[in-house]
Amino acid sequence: MCALNKQKKGFALVELIVVMGIMLMVSGLTIANFPAFRSQIAVSIALHELQLSLRQAQAYAIAVREFSPAFTAPICQPLVSPPARFPPYGVSITKNTSTYVLFADIACAVKTIPPYNKQIYNTGSVYGSEMVATKVMQGGAKVLSIDGCNGMSCIALDIVEVVYQRPSPSIIILGHSSVWASYTWVDITISSQNGAFTKVMRVRTSGQVSIQ
Known about the structure:
This protein is of the alpha+beta class and 212 residues long.
């Protein structure tokens, strides 16, 4: 009579040890890389929210969003005294900070801007606060650098303002280094809290916003 060999089902001790070792290795790598992953996510979210804020300012300007019904001037135009009821809107961004401001140009600085030698966003306007909202980057992300460019020439800036005004389809980009000046495009570099991860947003006067 032939004896039937019965195979035992399940894991052998060696197999179990190998599987546990692999799981521990994967867990260790995941934990070790988590800070870097978190930094990348924080920068990506900050760029996405900044892009949304720029689009929000553009939408407010195109849709002729009312800032205050108490203001008598309809829009910013020559021979009309501010404050404007339906002003241009923009975003003011400062280097080495984790905040930026969505604002309304109720003082109509855009109509007196040429030759583009002064700031548009006025924190001490005689007509009241121009701030619509202050945005805060999460996860320790911040504005590492700002570069304003014309042609092949670029210069480091400490502040940039991107302003949308109706009915013009283009935008105004003003930046401050030692003086205020206008630029064709601007590169805004966002970094993680430890500076290990960075990404660049490029904004052009054509209205194009891209992430490098």
